[in-house]
UniProtKB/TrEMBL annotation:
It comes from Kitasatospora indigofera. This is 2,3-dihydroxybenzoate-AMP ligase. InterPro entries: AMP-bd_C, AMP-bd_C_sf, AMP-binding_CS, AMP-dep_synth/lig_dom, ATP-dep_AMP-bd_enzyme, DHB_AMP_lig. Gene3D superfamilies: 3.30.300.30, 3.40.50.980, Luciferase, Domain 3. Residues 442-519 form the AMP-binding enzyme C-terminal domain.
Length: 530
């Protein structure tokens, strides 16, 4: 992994940002001081800090007993269940590095993660949301013969039951991980053909989690509803589940984020805060009046992952009877929050300001020249929890980071006089589908394999509900048949991509608009008449 240069690491340690503690200390500490306090609620199951801690120890021993070694990778694809944390913390304690797959990922993504990360194991649930992950695992083992084994939560089918890993006792690892080392691989939203893996260390991640918990006012009384997929960076760390554990609060897991499920859980579990993407926040707000649920415990609604319009922002707090916070973050690092003491206008119209005084933010033009204060430009950032490079991607790193280590976020922003950032647009080749990120090139590469497709360009089109949807503009190969839009969508699905990457719309064209230097102008395509 690309580490921080020594002078920066020294500075972050001296400032107290990096403490040398590993991430699992967020549960270990409370297991010692308040063993009986509930850490996780999953349906009718309530695990105390002591139980979660004990399970993580056993899982760590189990992974090592199966021959995994410190530094080995495992692809982790679990839904929002308590075992997610048992496995996550267990792996971390063993020094085994989880790759944080999402439940929506399918054959293309999971095979790629297993292959590229040279994973020793894939850890899945038997079934989730009507989908059999063992069948997917079977396809993955065929595509990636080097994958050591598949470990299944629930009915294992032909694979290893997770239960078996719990039987190995709890001998502490002989060679425990260190805080400056690689803890896990987070996923990039991506703008290129293949998803990128983001190497997060204990030191840097714990800093962002700890400070996020302070900024969001978490206490042992806090009850965080995890409605987004637990592996995603936002619900994991901003302050999310890890921030809640750090504060000694309780995490409630929602099996799905629908208003029916979530509003009932808020009432039953007396939830105090949650984090959502804009379309979900609006769906909850719309459903709340008729749902008849007591939402009086809810104090804070965080919204992030995609731009929240000012008009929507004005509706949310009153509809759900709580305070709103905007969150603009990224799995590569930098996270911005509006603060509890910000004026209301700031909360409604900005995406917040950085966590740390040591977050360096530059706003530049196309030539990397700093723009005057208040101007709109490309956001570059560097700091104590922003990575210096993707994992094993030197060529991509040369373009995604400046020579002096600033990450090119691909976001177009401006900064207000108070230091708050306003997201004005995006320069990266990505569709932000209500917080779910789609790399245009990844979808284009699949469609280009269709025999009737000569060329394709996937772009974002505005959408009232999701903010953006995806549209594939296709030039057909003469004489190679005339597929229907639905055929091409099925082709993407059959290519093994997650459902949210399937183009919402397919349009046939005879040529693409060009830029001055003869490249496809996605800007002009986006504004093409429908
Ligand atoms: C506009 N665009 C936003 C916002 C993210 C906290 C919150 C979100 C993420 C996340 C995260 C946005 N307004 N409020 O990791 O810890 C877009 C930007 C950004 C990209 C990152 C966290 N909040 N975005 O969304 O890695 O384009 O992380 O660069 O999935 O989402 O996506 P991701």
């Amino acid at each position: 992994m690309t580490l921080w240069p020594e002078e920066f690491a020294d500075r972050y340690r001296a400032a107290g940002h990096w403490t040398g503690e590993t991430l699992d200390t967020v549960i270990r500490r409370h297991a010692g001081t308040h063993p009986g306090r509930i850490a996780v609620t999953d349906g009718d199951r309530h695990w105390s800090y002591a139980e979660l801690d004990r399970r993580a120890d056993a899982l760590a021993a189990g992974l090592l007993a199966r021959g995994l070694r410190k530094g080995d990778r495992v692809v982790l694809q679990l839904p929002n269940v308590a075992e997610f944390f048992e496995v996550f913390f267990g792996a971390l304690r063993a020094g085994v590095v989880p790759v944080m797959a999402l439940p929506a990922h399918r054959r293309a993504e999971i095979s790629y993660f297993c292959e590229f990360a040279e994973a020793r194991a894939l850890i899945v649930a038997d079934r989730h949301a009507g989908f059999d992950h063992r069948e997917l695992a079977l396809e993955v083992t065929r595509a990636v013969p080097a994958l050591g084994e598949v470990i299944v939560l629930g009915d294992p089918g032909p694979f290893t039951p997770l239960e078996e890993l719990r039987q190995a006792g709890s001998t502490p690892p002989a060679d425990p991980p260190t805080a400056d080392g690689l803890a896990f691989l987070q996923l990039s939203g991506g703008s290129t053909g293949l998803p990128k893996l983001i190497p997060r260390s204990h030191d840097d991640y714990l800093y962002s989690v700890r400070e996020s918990a302070v900024i969001c006012g978490l206490t042992p009384r806090s009850v965080y509803l995890c409605a987004l997929p637990a592996a995603h960076n936002f619900p994991l760390s901003s302050p999310g589940t890890l921030g809640t554990f750090h504060a000694g609060g309780r995490v409630v897991l929602a099996p799905d984020p629908s208003p029916a499920t979530a509003l009932a859980l808020i009432e039953r579990e007396r939830v105090t805060l949650t984090g959502l993407v804009p379309p979900l926040a609006l769906a909850w707000a719309q459903a709340a009046p008729a749902a008849g649920r007591d939402l009086s415990s809810l104090e804070l609604l965080q919204v992030g992952g995609a731009k929240l319009s000012e008009e929507a922002a004005r509706r949310l707090g009153p509809a759900l009877g709580c305070r709103l916070q905007q969150v603009f973050g990224m799995a590569e690092g930098l996270v911005n929050y509006t603060r509890a003491d910000d004026p209301e206008e700031t909360v409604l119209t900005t995406q917040g300001r950085p966590i740390s005084p040591d977050d360096e933010v530059r706003i530049v033009d196309d030539e990397d020249q700093d723009l005057p204060e208040g101007a709109t430009g490309h956001l570059l950032t560097r700091g104590p929890y922003t990575v210096r490079g993707y994992w094993r991607a030197p060529e991509h790193n040369a373009v995604a980071f400046t020579a002096d280590g600033f990450y090119r976020t691909g976001d177009v922003v401006r900064r207000t006089p108070t230091g708050h950032l306003v997201v004005e647009g995006r320069a990266k080749d990505q569709i932000n589908r209500g917080g779910e990120k789609v790399a245009a090139e990844e979808v284009e590469n699949v469609l280009l394999r269709h025999p009737a497709v000569h060329d394709v360009s996937v772009v974002a089109t505005p959408d009232e509900y999701l903010g953006e949807r995806s549209c594939a503009y296709v030039i057909l190969r003469p004489g190679a048949g005339r597929p229907r839009p639905a055929d091409l969508k099925s082709f993407v699905r059959a290519g093994g991509l997650a459902d949210y990457k399937v183009p919402d719309r397919v349009e046939f064209v005879t040529a693409f608009p060009q830029t001055g230097i003869g490249k496809v102008s996605k800007k002009d395509l986006r504004s093409a008449p429908r």
